[in-house]
Amino acid sequence: MSFSQRLPLSFYQDVHRRVRTELEHHGLDALLVDDPHEVAYLSGFFHHPNERPAAVWISGDRTVLLVPELEREHATAQCAAVDEIVAFAEYPGLHSPFEPLARSVGRSGTWGHSPNLSTGRLHELQTVFDGVKWHMSGIVDSLRLIKSPEEIALHRQAAALGDVMLYAGRDLIEAAIADGGALPTEAELAGHVARTGTSWMYENHNDVVVVPMLAAGLVYAGANSAFPHGLPSSYRLQAGDTVILSLGGAVGGRYAESERTFFLGDPTDDQLRYFSADHRAQEVGTKELRPGALCRDVNRACLDVIRDAGLTEYIRHRQGHGIGLNFHEPPWLEDGDASALEAGMVVSSEPGIYVPGHAGYRISDTVLVTDDGAERLTRYPRDLDDVIINL
After folding, report:
1. Whole domain around residue 296: which residue ranges?
2. pLDDT tens digits for range 38-79
3. Contacts of 147 (CB under 8 A, 6+ apart)
4. Are residues 17 and 78 in the same domain?
5. What beta strand segments (E) does the chain contain?
């Protein structure tokens, strides 16, 4: 298999068309964004974010990418979708890095800026573009909620990556058992799945888009798994442990996560109780994902399964979140999000139960909201018989 991670020019042309429609609707002459994910979404320019700014300015008829000089050739190689690339010499520089953009696009008009723009960056822009009236605008955030077919193809590949890593983690544990040696530590297991995921990525894809988390995840066992975002440690897995493998990565800059709870040996009655409640909650919550359903209602239906099981005190987080160019982005499957789900959204469904001093239990799938309901993009088996590792 050979799969290109680069989106076609037509994708960016369509994004620009939709942005311009929104600009006209909101009475804006242009929009400026500097968040790395928004820059990538509008231009195809993926880069390592640092103190040197990169930004996209888009108006009714032009799209201009601003980059530092050391990124000019890199951007030119990636970004056929923009009309012009302008560069500043260095940061902080003798003049503002936004001066080259101002010389190209002017210094007046009514412009929108991303909600992600920092107050310090806005002050700098107000100084350079002294004739511009600025308005905060979530145009790009809104467009990113619904994934295009091209993006969904990338999410499918990212989901496959997460599953590959889960199989690799289980294989390493089973190999250690078969050899009669020591079980791996959390850190050893985390390193193994990350290497396997990265190797799979380069073996099966062309034009790999490198992002800060290409293939990685959280690995925790025993009592450590009761920390929802615990980091891998030197703890060595032991017989009887509950083990959470929370793995994933990005293909073409689009993420997916695949998480499963495993048992090293036959689970105890307590382990079965917690796992069964979480499994039911994940099943119910995933089935509730359909167009028109409100995020808060889906979350409530999911977590009510855990509450009804008498385990309210062990809930630590919402059902899930949107996934796209960010691992966590809107919509939020949480009581405070009243927005309605739409076909084309990609979300996680990952209720968890965390018992301090004992273990945690979490099952997560990356789910595509379709016209008919929900499609799990991650396919690793999730039932009890599938997650018991025999000793």
Report:
1. 149-389
2. 999 999 999 989 999 999 999 999 999 999 999 999 999 999
3. 155, 254, 324, 344, 345, 346, 368
4. yes
5. 3-4, 30-33, 55-59, 63-68, 84-88, 108-113, 131-136, 205-206, 215-221, 242-251, 254-264, 320-322, 329-333, 346-349, 352-355, 359-362, 365-370, 373-376, 388-389
State the Cα–Cα distance between residues 165 and 364, nearest whole angstrom: 14
Cis peptide before 8 (omega within 30 of 0): no
State the average pLDDT over residues 132-142: 97
Q: How confident is the model at residue 130 (pLDDT cuts 50, 70, 90)?
A: very high
Q: What is the pLDDT of residues 233-266, one digit of tens each?
A: 999 999 999 999 999 999 999 999 999 999 999 9
Angle between helices 186-204 and 149-179 (to 10 degrees): 130
The answer to whether residues 161 and 65 belong to one domain is: no
247 shares a domain with 133: no
Domain count, the chain: 2
Interhelix angle 36-43/9-26, rounded to 10 degrees, is: 110
Q: Cα separations (Å) of 93 from 79, 89, 323?
A: 25, 7, 36
Domain containing residue 83: CATH number: 3.40.350.10
1, pLDDT greater than 60: no
Contacts of 342 (CB under 8 A, 6+ apart): 145, 146, 291, 369
**Distance between CA atoms of residues 289 and 322, nearest Å:** 12
Residues in the chain: 391
Residue 110 shares a structural domain with residue 169: no
Tell me if residue 347 falls in helix, strand or coil.
strand
Domain boundary among 84, 112, 145: 145
Report the first-to-last Cα separation within the chain, whole angstroms.
35
Are 126 and 202 in a shared domain?
no
User: Is the distance from CB of 125 to CB of 149 less than 8 angstroms?
Assistant: no
Out of 123, 145, 167, a domain closes at: 145
DSSP 3-state helix, strand, coil percentages of the chain (rounded to 5)? 40, 25, 35
Task: Tell whether 60 and 75 lie within a shared domain.
Answer: yes
